[in-house]
Write a structure and sequence with these properties.
The structure holds 2 protein chains of 2 kinds.
Chain A (H helix, E strand, L loop, with lengths): L7 H9 L5 H19 L2 E4 L15 E5 L26 H8 L3 E6 L33 H8 L6 E5 L5 H7 L2 E4 L19 E6 L2 H11 L23 E5 H4 L4 H16 L3 E5 L5 H19 L18 H8 L5 H13 L5 H23 L4 E5 L10 H4 L1 H6 L5 H6 L3 E9 L2 E8 L5 H15 L8
Chain B lengths: L4 H7 L6 H19 L30 H15 L7
Classes of the chains: A alpha/beta, B mainly alpha.
Amino acid sequence: MNLEGYTLQLILKEIENGSLSPEDINEFYYKRSVDLNRVLNAYITLLEPEKSRAEGDLKGIAIAIKDNISTKGVRTTCASKMLENYIPPYDATAVSSLKKHGGSLLGKTNMDEFAMGSSGENSAFGPTRNPLNREYVTGGSSSGSAAAVAADMAPIALGSDTGGSVRAPASFTGIVGFKPSYGAISRYGLIAYANSLEVIGILGKSVDDVNILFKMIAGKDPMDSTSVNVELKEKNISKPKILVIKSFVELSADEVKKEFYSSIGKLESAGFEINYADKFSLTDYMLSAYYTIACAEASTNLSRYDGIRYGPKVESAGNWRDYISRARSFFGPEVKARIMMGTFILSAGYYETYYLRALQLRKIIKQEFEKIISNYDAVYVPTMPVLPWRIGNAIEDPKIAYAADVLTVLPNLTGSPAISLPVGKVREFFVGGQFIGLKNEDMKLLKVAEIAEKVLQVKRSGRN
Amino acid sequence: MRYSINKLSKLSMLKISKEEEKMIAKKVQALGELLEKLDTVEPPKEAFVLAPEGEHKRDDVPVQFDSDDIIKVFNNVKERYLKGPKTL
């Protein structure tokens, strides 16, 4: 049996008509993952398939979960030495919802440590490799989830998105990555990095696949007071009205721009109403506002890893300060750098200059975005301004990775839903296009993306 | 540059080894450049950071952990979780 290229939707259909069993399917993905993981390093923990019955909407199918989403009884490392042997005693709400729908767990996927990174290189378990070319990065931070789906090591996967961590790797590996509205999926059990920005997202082979899973895990949760009920009724749109922000497209490399503009031509021919805005006035400050808020929240959230509450115990003959400093040496360099910047940002004298100003900018960015999108179904921009880079390049020059987030941070600052799908191809890589919608109008956005996917037909090899 | 790695690491209670010092310094420098862009923005006059009155209210009910269940989990999982690779 070969399930290469099978979408979740097709798998479910085949189970329903009796041509495939969940055991066979889970066995296929497990064996393929064992084989390919040696080269791609997509999983940190793989679980042997358990006996499952074709019950519930997911019919016993096993799903890959990013390793910062808590799974009861299965270690959850955040790709960090700090949590190398941490076993959560409870499931994240998203995981328990999947289980309630008949899903099971295939494994925990590799990622940038504590979700800090855009390349998938900052993992204490080694970098994830791009299935399209193993010398190149997958994008991050949900690197393992993207590689697993792209390489048919999982039918679909959960990731998390703080500044593009689902959409960036989806774009670099040629799959679909969906970041829902803030609060649409409960964050209970998602190990916190930057609470006000992050969401659980979905990586799949098609827009329909992420739609199927989204409807299963979305909804208000008493365990997460920021969660909301977004409307989950399918929307009916025939000719989507799209706004392209030119100043965003101009930030992209020429080969990305060319493919992106070519996709606009195809969409226009298929009846999309395309409109252009010259610029978004705060484009230059989005990254600064994002990194200021993210680092500040990281320094607060990660203070619990002190060797007392969380993290390995260490030997120390000194005082508490010495003990905590030693315990915190288990963090990797990227995490340390962000904690240090966050501590600086929140320190007396700088709080107003940086943190407060970033919050104010965030509010203006949100207001401006909501104003410009109000007459359209979605904004359309490239997902990543560049193609994947060689593993190691961003470690030499960290600015490469930070700058690569420039087009993905907007929806995290505004809480809007966004979805990346392959819209063009350059050499062995795909160019991702990103549709961004109005907050809590996730189903409308998914409908626009579904129509665009059908028009553009940028497909990987294999079945659909 | 005002971000001395020594000072920041003490402030954040982080021990930095000699090997990582150079790499962290590069990252802090890059993040610092992003931060400094904020110096050039005129902050808006209205302080509209806080949500309006009433939007803070929580309507969720705290749920208690089942402590027996938590203890059970640890005894049942040792073999399963140790299957993965070790960190580098």
